[in-house]
Structures are given as structure tokens and as C-alpha cells.
Amino acid sequence: MTTRKMFSILLVANLLTVALVTAAFQAGGIVASPAPRTAGDQPAAFDPNLVPFVPWMMNYQGILKDSGGTPLTGQHDLTFTIYRYDQVAGYQSIWTETHTNVQVTNGLFNVALGTQGSPLRGDTFAGMGVNGQWDGDLELGVKVDGGTELSPRTRLETVPYAHRAEYVNRFPKPHYDSGWTSVTVGGSGNTFTHNLGGDTDNYVVDMQFKDTVAPNPNGVHQRFYGMYADDVTGQYGAYWYWLDTSTIKVYVGPHEADINQVRIRIWRIE
Hints:
By secondary structure, this protein is mainly beta. The chain is built from no helices and 17 strands. Strands 9, 10, 12, 13 and 17 form a 5-stranded antiparallel β-sheet that branches. A hairpin with a 5-residue loop joins strand 15 and strand 16 (247-252). It is elongated, with a radius of gyration of 28 Å. It starts with 5 loop residues before the first strand and ends with a strand. Residues 1-45 have low confidence and may be disordered.
């Protein structure tokens, strides 16, 4: 078929439909329901015990018309390709998949990208890089019945709630951070006041040590996390205890010489 096709693609994300008008077509949204994993599409490091799963598919809907604007009916082969921009090499193909005999009815068609042997894993959507303004930018191209790829390609954008996914790229900020605090050894311990409230069963506590004493400071470390008792010279190390909804205590062994500062961080996970 030599007649050039024109596309209008609807972006679908969960129950929200967003119309994104472009010169040729528009990109699809991520399917909301979970997709089962099979041995064939699992990467080597895949752990089936880690849940929930993110679907490796993208829903893509469109309207196929001829050059005169008449909606088509019939079956057509559609090839989809995702390109990622590299500051040095330009746009490079990173994923492609062909759907054969796609049913088109009054111009309307729907495909699930990632279901024809080329799963759309998270590393496909790696996001923008740091080397340049457009480094990592993604575009989607479409070919119809093996013809020339339609131009222009469509830039893949973020659907509204997917912006939240950016947080998976970094460790979440703690709800409490004591900063590096000088501590005393022995005695009644050191009290840190966090006032986080809630249920302490839903706390995650991290403690780090620092040694800044000359002539041989050890820097940041976790040597003797907990208490170590030497029958000859006494107690070493440090530990936290007496955690409640407002405070936490840290005890440093009376003979510990490599801990002069402690940092406590707490996350509430409920």
C-alpha cells in the first residue's frame, strides 16, 4: 500500500484519557494492570519475590486514515520503534516491535506494545541524563505495512501521576536527621529528640559513627555497631535504645576511642 497514513493517537493512563495533538500521531500511556512474568521475558537479575510488578507494556490507540482523511478498515502491519537521544550519536533505536494484522475498524486500532517478544522494561524509560538538556529524551516512531517511518516522530512525555516515580531514583529523605552530633562515652547515654509520633513499629532507624580525633581519625564508620566487651579493658562500640515517639538514646562504651560523633536518621514508613 503506497497511500500515506495519518495518525491521531490517544494517550490513555489508568482511567484518564489525555488528547495530545501532534502533526502526525500521539504517544500511548502505561497500562495500569499488572502483567505476569514468564521465563522468556525475565532479565538475569529478576527476582519473582519482589512485588508489586510494574507491567512491561504500553497501551497504544490510534485512528488510521488515508491521505484524504478517510478512516480505513482492514488489517495492517504496524512497526513501533523507540529512540533515545545521545548527545554524541544523536537519536538511537533502543527498542522495536512489529504487530502484524492489526485490525483497523473505521480507522480505530489498539495495540499493547511489549507483548510481541520485546517487553518494555523500566530501563527502556531511563529518563533524562545529566550530560545535556535533551540527553535521554525518547521518541516513538511508527511504520505502516513496512513502509517509510512516519515523520515527525512523537516525543514520549510523562503522564501526570508518573512524576511520582522519579522518587525511585533516590533514597527518600529521612523524617528525622540529627546531623553529626558530638556524644559522651559511658554515663547515662545520649538523648536525641525527634518528635515523630505515630507507631515506633513503623520506624526505620539508621545510625552512623564518626571519628575526627587526631592523629589517626577513622572518619565515618560502623565499627563495633552494638556493644563489644573486652574482659581486660572494658566496653567498646555503641548502640541505640529506648526508642519512643519523641526520643531515642545512644550509648557509647566508656572505653570507646573511635566514636566521638553520631548521626541518627529515622524514617516513618506507614
